[in-house]
Design goal:
It is a single chain. The chain is an alpha+beta fold. The protein has a single domain, classed as SH3 type barrels (Roll). It is built from 2 helices and 5 strands, in the order H-E-E-E-E-E-H. Strands 4-3-2-1-5 form a 5-stranded antiparallel beta sheet.
Amino acid sequence: MAAKGGKQLVNPFKYLKEHLNSQIYVKLKDGSEYVGKLVATDTTMNLILDDAIEVADNGTRLVAKIGRVLIKGSMVEFISFDASTAAEKALTGV
């Protein structure tokens, strides 16, 4: 399937599956932000994160250590697969 301008559309589920057991950063539509290890996902983009933390200020401030969290796919605004910087800043305060 081609998008406007001839670019190929790619199903985001492919990228989620490729990043299982990787640390990701997730921002929700309500403004909440989470960093954790992606352990499961499905075609509706529901996410299960292990060792999750809730962060704020674009990942620079730790709000809470959550543990395991289920994030409903319809609430996801965006996902970053480069979460190590956000987690490090939140946990160390640097």
